[in-house]
Specification:
This protein is an alpha+beta fold. It is about 55% helix and about 15% strand.
Length: about 450
């Protein structure tokens, strides 16, 4: 508590000194000059926005350089303000001592610190993280410029809550949060870089590439957390209670999450499903787009995207059309009239497939007579394709159109069901026993 009182006394003393200086002529002069510098910066901002279009001129510039240049344009008023106040400060030093124009020096230092920090923070693409890092770093710089950083640090460290061997204070929390933010950002950036290098390694299968990328990222994040905890003086053994809490959480409510995580690792290890495969699960057919830690993204043929839990792909029956062999046999069923020659039907049906480019020559198509049906001779036309990823329903449709056109040319009839209906006069009249035939389509 003594540190808190000392810090408050320092702030009050600074306020009193400021009020005393306000009575002198130099403080109003500095405040007026700062207002003039702010007006000049605002006027330049309005003129630049009206006459200069930076976004259109940065087309084709590399992303990182473009991001930094955009940050410069955003902070251009602050840059102008810092330059104007710096010129004013150097000019005022010719007629006054540094103590009488210290406010201009502080304003210049604060504006310069904000510009430098903003340009470095522009490398962070996440807007929230960008702003959080910029504000935090500038606050620390401002306290240092004002000479309050040491007292603020002592005050934040004076209030603490001991938990075991760990002394939790506001200063420790702030340091841990800042270091974690920086360390995790560095881990994510480095992990993305390594992941891109792994994805361009042609010697690895897609499943192994994804698995290695995830392992590298998780390892870097865990390493970053361990380094930060060690830097702030927290013993990792003190977090043993946390692992127990995680175990209880897994037992009560996180079974599905952990199951999906483990299932995702299994899918990547056993190579049963990989990005680009055409799969069918629960009557849904689509292409595997992404395998993440918790779910697998499947894009259906109509454009919809399903986030399928990894556990379902491990425990349920999954049809993988392109697991080890991309060749797929398709079947088209049809029937012809009993008046047709079945040998001619088979020849015409096989001939109809010759003009369809996606049907393979080897193994050759085959047409089989399945059975003698009630109304027709039933056939099965079987053929092979090697690109199911381009769709299978469209091939079937093309085959049926080709067979229909061929049958029309050759006069082969595709029958429709016929039923005999017997009408009996129950009154026993002369019409009794008269039989009529009526056709009824199914």
């Amino acid at each position: 508590m003594d540190d808190v009182r000392q810090y408050l006394d320092t702030v009050l003393e600074s306020i009193r000194a400021f009020s005393v200086e306000f009575a002198s002529i130099w403080l109003p002069i500095q405040l007026g000059l700062l207002l003039v510098a702010a007006a000049i910066a605002y006027g330049c901002k309005v003129w630049i926005r009206k006459h200069v279009h930076f976004a259109a001129r940065l087309t084709g510039v590399p992303p990182i350089i473009r991001q930094i240049l955009l940050a410069v344009t955003v902070n251009l008023p602050v840059i102008i303000f810092a330059l104007v106040t710096a010129v004013m400060y150097q000019t005022m030093l010719e007629v006054a001592s540094p103590a009488r124009v210290y406010l201009l020096n502080i304003a210049t230092s604060l504006a310069t610190a904000w510009v430098v920090i903003s340009l470095f923070a522009a490398l962070l693409r996440n807007h929230f993280v960008n702003r959080a890092v910029a504000i935090t770093a500038w606050t620390i710089a401002a306290l240092s410029i004002l000479g309050l950083l040491g007292n603020t640090t002592k005050m934040l460290d004076s209030v603490a809550l001991p938990i075991g061997d760990v002394r939790i204070s506001p200063l420790l929390i702030l340091k841990t949060a800042i270091l974690l933010m920086v360390a995790l950002w560095a881990a994510v950036v480095f992990g993305n870089f390594l992941d891109k290098r792994i994805q361009h390694t042609t010697d690895l299968t897609p499943s192994i590439q994804i698995l290695l990328g995830k392992v590298v990222r998780l390892s870097l994040v865990a390493l970053a957390v361990a380094i930060v905890l060690n830097m702030v003086g927290i013993n990792l053994s003190a977090l043993a209670w946390f692992s127990g809490a995680v175990g209880v959480g897994v037992g009560f409510g996180l079974q599905k999450i952990v199951s999906n995580l483990v299932s995702g690792i299994i899918l990547l290890l056993d190579k049963s499903i990989k990005p680009g495969d055409l799969i069918a699960v629960a009557e849904e057919v689509g292409w595997v787009t992404t395998i993440s830690a918790r779910y697998t993204l499947v894009t259906l043929r109509d454009g919809r995207e399903i986030l399928m839990p990894n556990e379902d792909l491990v425990t349920q029956r999954v049809v993988n059309w392109s697991h080890t062999n991309s060749r797929v046999r398709l079947e088209v069923l049809f029937g012809v009239s009993y008046a047709s020659d079945p040998h001619k039907v088979r020849k015409v049906a096989l001939g109809a497939l010759e003009g369809i480019p996606r049907i393979l020559k080897t193994p050759p198509p085959h047409c089989s007579l399945l059975k003698f049906g009630d109304f027709s001779l039933d056939f099965a036309l079987r053929f092979w394709i090697e690109d199911p990823i381009n769709g299978v329903g469209n091939v079937r449709s093309e085959v049926m159109f080709a067979v229909w056109d061929a049958f029309k040319r050759e006069g082969i009839e595709i029958p429709y069901p016929m039923h005999d209906v017997r009408v009996v006069n129950g009154a026993g009249s002369l019409d009794a026993g008269l039989e009529t035939k009526a056709a009824q389509s199914m």
